[in-house]
Amino acid sequence: MTDTASVPTKPRVRVPFWDNARFACIVLVVVGHAIQRQTADSDNALSLYLFIYAFHMPAFAIVSGFFSKAAPPGVRQMRRVLTDIVLPYVIMQTIWSLVQWIVEGKNAFNPSEPHWTLWFLLALAIFRAVLPYLALLRWPLLWAVVASVGVGYLANVDSTFSLSRAIGILPFFVLGWRLRSWGVVDRWRALPSGAVWGVRFVSLAVLATWLAVVVVNIQPFRAFDLRFWFFYDDSYQALGEPEWWAGLLRLGLIAFAVLLTAAFLTLIPRRRTFFTEFGQATMYVYLLHSFVLYPIRESGVLKDEHSSAIWLLTMVFASLAISVALASPWVRRVFRPLIEPKPNWLFVDRDERPPAASRTDPTGARRRS
């Protein structure tokens, strides 16, 4: 097994492809959340929603897994799980509880039930905890798939601490980790332009075919509640399909998500673009966009006539604008204490070592310190 924990002897070279991919993924996340309220009254919105949800979180998990290390964590890595994942989760969970108490009158703070988008932080913590153990086994990806398919049969494994969803998307995280040792992405980046455009043509055909399938079958997909299957959260019994073959459906959806993610990633520019820099701020966009969308979603403005195609396009472009704004340098400066806290006072031993020139956040984004 390749040792991914070795310390590099020279500064890392930024790879624009990954920053581009991270920003593209987070834009899809924001779009999906922005149009969710419109799906009840609009087939167009539900079609776009299903198109995105078939692969957007698997893609995010794959990208995060690519930059994860399977070696047993050292003291610094263990501290960063607390400072980069656990503490931001507690902070944002507390803020969300206060917001819902003030706006909705809900008087409950329950750290075991993550608010809205915060489930992914807990999932990342779970991934970091189990990956060193999976790496000890033969066929770690196979065991991750078995766990994902198998957990759907267990009705007592629920969304408490995001456990069911974390196990559900675990295969994508492990696949991302394995891709690094397989060198797939390096070979992709080394391909000549002619070959790249040939692959991209096929990828466009794959994604266009999926979109066409969704549009044509939107009513059966709505009746089947297909969108809930893309959450990888509920048990098969809760999804209304307790039959033995339900696991095969999840297995098929996993394979399909990998196909769509591969097609999506091959369309990502390999060179630096105008949005490359935004890829360094995915955690900011992920954790803050829900506060921007919350009043829009809860006001009911996206229902009935406001679910039309014009409003759908409006929300798509608004999502892009929100993503760009939240990735801006001034937002990072203002919200850094919440997203990237540095609580040296919390630890028994202070880390006196100078900070690295750049650091990698839980999604794999490497930012300048």
What can you see in these coordinates?
By secondary structure, the chain is mostly helical. The protein has one domain. It is 62% helix and 2% strand. It has helices spanning 16-35, 43-53, 56-66, 75-104, 119-134, 140-151, 163-182, 184-190, 193-216, 218-224, 226-229, 246-266, 282-298, 309-326, 329-339; strands at residues 358-360, 366-368. A two-stranded antiparallel ribbon has the order 1-2. Helix 3 crosses helix 7 (163-182) and helix 6 (140-151) packs across helix 12 (246-266). The protein is globular. The model is unreliable at 1-11 (pLDDT under 50).
**Domains (count):** 1
Averaged pLDDT, please? Answer: 89
- Strand arrangement within the widest β-sheet reads 1-2
How far is the N terminus from the C terminus? Answer: 31 Å
Which oligomeric state applies?
A: single chain
Describe the SSE topology:
Elements: H1 16-35, H2 43-53, H3 56-66, H4 75-104, H5 119-134, H6 140-151, H7 163-182, H8 184-190, H9 193-216, H10 218-224, H11 226-229, H12 246-266, H13 282-298, H14 309-326, H15 329-339, E1 358-360, E2 366-368
Antiparallel strand pairs: 1-2
What keyword list fits this structure?
single chain; 369 residues; mainly alpha; two-stranded antiparallel ribbon; 15 helices; 2 strands
